[in-house]
Structures are given as structure tokens and as C-alpha cells.
Amino acid sequence: MALRAGRAVRAAGRRRLLRAPRVAEAGRAGSVGRAAVTDDAPVGRVRSLVTAPESGAPPERRESVTVHADGVAGDRYRAGDGTFQLDGCAVTLVAAEALDAVREETGIDVSDGRHRRNVVVEGFGAGLDDLLDATVAVGGALLRPTRRRPPCAHVEELAGAAGLAAALRNRGGLCCDVLEAGDVAVGDRVAIREADPRTAGAEIAARLREGRE
Questions:
Q1: Is the dihedral of CA 51, 52, 55, 58 positive or negative?
Q2: Long-range contacts made by residues 194-202, C-beta under 8 angstroms, separation at least 24?
Q3: CA Rg, the chain, in Å?
Q4: How many Cβ atoms from other residues are within 10 Å of residue 204's Cβ?
Q5: What's the rounded mean pLDDT across residues 70-80?
Q6: Euclidean distance between CA atoms 123 and 30, whole angstroms
Q7: 119-122 and 91-95 beta bridge pairing
Q8: What is the pLDDT of residue 33?
Q9: Cβ neighbours of 184 (radius 10 Å)
Q10: Poorest-confidence range of 3-7, 104-108, 133-137, 141-145?
Q11: pLDDT at position 42, please?
């Protein structure tokens, strides 16, 4: 009897270790637990949307956009006229927290869209670390951020803001592939549909190791 009770206690402990951590609240600073996010959990939102119709053109703030497989409607990269067209970046994200930090630290305010990223999201921290290589629902579109989008001298020159590239270093945004086309509007929720499997697996293994110590 005592042996069976001991096994039951150990099994319950393992279930607690494997249980997903609590989802971070929308808008909360910091990272979201990757393995915890469910399909309908609103963990972030779209703060603003930006397109530019051609290379070098002033950015335009938009209330809503349509995301296609090859980019954002009305944007230079979908039209094949982006400066870094060969980079193959359909949609770009940047963190609202990063832009806020740049303004506070340097006085440079690019909330008018001079950062030249398509979607400004908030709720995931300045580096958007939890979104990298995850499957992310942004409004009605489904994206996969595949790599970082470092700032460059070209963006700084177009913005007319000396020091912008340095200020955005390590928080210049992400480059995304489009998994499903859809409409995106300011205020839409942003949620991780599927975490980066490599990171999620490592976190589960770490929790199991902690349980054995």
C-alpha cells in the first residue's frame, strides 16, 4: 500500500513539472512562456502598422493592412522595389518596447514609422525573443519570424535621425515568412500559436531535471 502511494505521489509530481507555465498577461513587459500559450490567449497586440509604397518613400501609418504570401499590400517589398529586396523578407516586426526605450534613452522618436518596419507589436519585450522561430498569429495572418532584422545606416539616413541604428542594435526587429495570409489592424491581438520546438523541448527537459535534483 505504501509503495503504491509513493508511486502516485511521484506521478503527480511529474505531471506538475510537465504542466505548462502560466501565460503572461497581454501588455506585460518581459517574455511570454513559449510552451504555455494557447490558441486563443491574447498575449500581445498590434500597436501600429507601417508601409512605404516604394524604395526611399516616406513611411505611411495604416489602420489596417492585408498580408499576402509575398508581403504587405501597398508596401515596397511586395511590389519588388525594396532596397534589400534580395533579403527575401515578406513582413517585418519590431517591438513597441524597443521604440519606447530608444525614445527614452536617446530622445529619438520614430513612432511615426521612420523605423520602416511593417508591424509594431507590444507585449513580448524589446528583443521579441519569444517570437523568433515560433508560429505567431498576428490579427488574421499567421507568420513565422525566421531571423533578426538588424538596423542599418540606410534606415538611419532615411529617418534623418543620427544614432538610430546604434540605438536599435539587438532590438531592430524580426523578419517573417507568411504561413497564412490575412488582414491585420491596429489593436489586433498577437499570440504564439506554436513555440519554437527546440526551445520548448529544452524547457521541458530543464523542468524534468529540476524535479530529479
A1: negative
A2: 194/134, 194/135, 195/34, 195/35, 195/37, 195/130, 195/134, 196/34, 196/132, 196/133, 196/134, 198/133, 199/34, 199/133, 200/34, 200/35
A3: 20
A4: 14
A5: 91
A6: 7
A7: parallel
A8: 38
A9: 24
A10: 3-7
A11: 43
User: What is the mean predicted confidence (pLDDT) over 104-112?
Assistant: 96
Question: Could you tell me the pTM of the whole model?
Answer: 0.73
Strand partners for 121: 46, 95
Domain residue spans in the chain?
2-212
Q: Is 25's pLDDT higher than 50?
A: no
CATH 2.40.33.20 applies to domain 2-212: yes
Give the C-alpha distances (Å, rounded to integers) separating 151 from 41, 93, 124, 166, 211.
31, 12, 19, 8, 42
- In the numeric block, which cell numbers belong to residue 112? 511615426
The x, y and z cell numbers of residue 14, run together, are 511529474
pLDDT digits (tens, 9 = 90+) for 43-69: 899 999 999 998 889 999 999 999 999
* The C-alpha cell that represents 98 in the structure block: 524597443
Query: φ, ψ for residue 101 (rounded to 5)?
Result: -65, -40
CA atoms of 29 and 43, how far apart (whole Å): 11
Per the prediction, the chain carries an average pLDDT of 79
